[in-house]
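Hi L.,

As promised, CMP/dCMP-type deaminase domain-containing protein:
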Amino acid sequence: MQFQQLMPVGYAKQPTLKTFVLAKIKKENTEKSIKLYKQKYHQYFYQHDYLKLIRQGKEKDHVLMLFCFPEDLEKMKGDFEIEEFLEIQLPSVAPIHKEQKSIYDGYWNIVHPNYEYPHKQNKDAPLKMQQILDTKTTRNKCILYNDENTIVIEAEDETHINNVRHCVMVAMEKLAEHNKNQNHQRHFRENQYYAREMTLVTYFEPCIMCAMALIHSRINEVYYYEKRVTDGGLNDQLQVNNMKQLNHKYLVFYQH
């Protein structure tokens, strides 16, 4: 059984471009301009923090500063002594792997670190998924196992009891209880998140609620067999596992 990996938005080799405005500044005014800019607009490019603020211009006595988007130029330029403004096309999202970063560097100086987005699949996941597929009662279940391939929790959907008791939520509840009873084990210390270094295999794609619960649990990987039609949280359109605003990410692999 082979799984396809859910890759982050922007993983494509060639970047999607967006129009930015550059300010052409005399070198002797660089420090003053940077200080003023950071005082007034330090959060302006927070979603594009992979782009360096300053780079050397073609003329040795000038530098180019990333200034704003075209629609904000008129209201922002009055605060600065700028000789000239230039429009430029730059990557709209941060690079994800080394090859992509080397391409981005041709557009602008990039501060995003070099790294490879991990994509190695867990060799035991197909076997666990087959266990679910072979279940005679219901496939709407999940299996949670650790990095030693030991099954820690198995859970089934319980929405007949309560609408929010999807199998993933039931598994997280059982894991919390297991944590209380087995906190001497290295996977369940009180100072750790519940599912660190663990893998979840589930038949249905986790919904948005379950995908967020997995963020909080610090799950390592998730494998699912069938996509949800409407409320899935781990698909090409809505990748809860890769959201930049959240403080944890996990890998997702799927079959259909």
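The beta strands are 4-5, 17-26, 54-56, 62-68, 84-91, 141-145, 151-156, 199-204, 221-226, 251-254.

Thanks again for sending the construct details.

K.
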